[in-house]
Design a protein that fits this description.
about 325 residues; alpha/beta; 5-stranded mixed β-sheet; 4-stranded parallel β-sheet; about 15% strand; disordered N terminus
């Protein structure tokens, strides 16, 4: 993961001091954590908040550090949000996705710190991910710009593994409601298992197995279902592709029968549309589900994933 914005130590110290000075003045949702009788969970961004809500049910009050429509990778934590984390009963985040969140959690005294990255296995992914890469990587000469890929929530199987870990953490931190957390976790895992089956069945027989995205968010999904993701950029959604990479993608699209260049709702579609126009391809949305907005094709994780499946089926062509 390319780290683009790190808060200098002096700024961190100043923000912390400011946060402590306004501790009693904070009000509203952004400082709600710790102010209720519920188990207060601060989540770093939507996929983590969704898990907390599904597993916690009525026993948990969930607030998110990343607002709807905000690009999670760009989040910079405010002094007020540092207070929000400090007052929480638990914080649920995904290390190495949002550097300012990592810094805030590390400096906080919150008792229960749940790092989703420790609850499943992370892999190294570059601009090309999937079965196609081993066969054609040398031929295409792709530039691999990658690292540990944090986009585990887009794979229903890995997301289910994280859900189990979060459920266990909730049970330990709030034992009075452990039975309900266990029950809710089981129900969520069952829904994720069903979603996995939908993807397996829906993508089993397609005319092509290769798809192009603006950035490499769908590597785990591609590997899970026997596809190959070709990303215009690497794991950083706003990094610019080289001219050689663009030319290579156009050649690959023609050779592998690619029909569509996918872009996402929270990042500019300019590059995707330019490449698609030059290569004579369509464009469509493949949502990395980093946040739900009025542009999202669904109101929650499951609805958007089902929309993603339909978009992939259309682009790849079902036999």
């Amino acid at each position: 993961m390319n780290v683009r914005r790190l808060i200098p130590g002096t700024a961190v110290a100043a923000a912390t001091a400011l946060g402590l000075s306004v501790l009693t003045a904070c009000s509203g949702e952004s400082a709600a954590a710790g102010d209720s009788d519920q188990f207060d969970v601060v989540a770093s961004f939507y996929p983590m908040a969704f898990l907390a809500e599904q597993i916690g049910g009525d026993h948990v009050k969930v607030s998110s550090l990343t607002q709807p429509g905000q690009e999670p990778h760009d989040l910079e934590i405010s002094a007020q949000q540092r207070v929000q984390v400090e007052k929480a009963d638990a914080v649920l985040y995904l290390k190495n996705l949002q550097p300012s969140v990592d810094d805030t959690v590390a400096q906080s005294g919150v008792k229960t710190k749940i790092d989703a990255a420790t609850l499943t296995s992370l892999e190294e992914h570059g601009t090309e991910v999937g079965g196609h890469a081993d066969e054609h990587e040398e031929e295409h000469g792709h530039e691999e710009e990658g690292g540990k890929d944090p986009h585990i929530w887009l794979d229903p199987v890995k997301y289910a593994e994280v859900a189990k870990g979060v459920g266990a953490a909730f049970e330990k931190a709030d034992p009075d409601h452990a039975a309900d957390y266990k029950k809710n976790t089981a129900a969520l895992v069952a829904k994720l298992d069903a979603l996995n089956t939908q993807f397996e069945t829906g993508l089993a027989n397609t005319r092509t197995k290769v798809f192009i995205t603006t950035h490499a968010a769908f590597g785990y999904l591609a590997e899970r279902y026997g596809l190959t993701e070709e990303a215009i950029s690497g794991l950083d959604p706003e990094s610019e592709p080289s001219a050689a990479r663009v030319k290579d993608l156009e050649k690959m699209a023609k050779a592998d029968g690619v029909t569509t260049v996918f872009y996402e709702t929270l990042v500019s579609d300019k590059t995707a549309k330019t490449i698609a126009k030059d290569a004579g391809l369509r464009t469509d949305v493949l949502d990395p589900i980093e946040g739900i907005t009025d542009k999202s094709r669904g109101t929650d994780y499951f609805a958007v994933q089902e929309a993603n499946l339909k978009a992939l089926q259309t682009a790849l062509g079902t036999k």
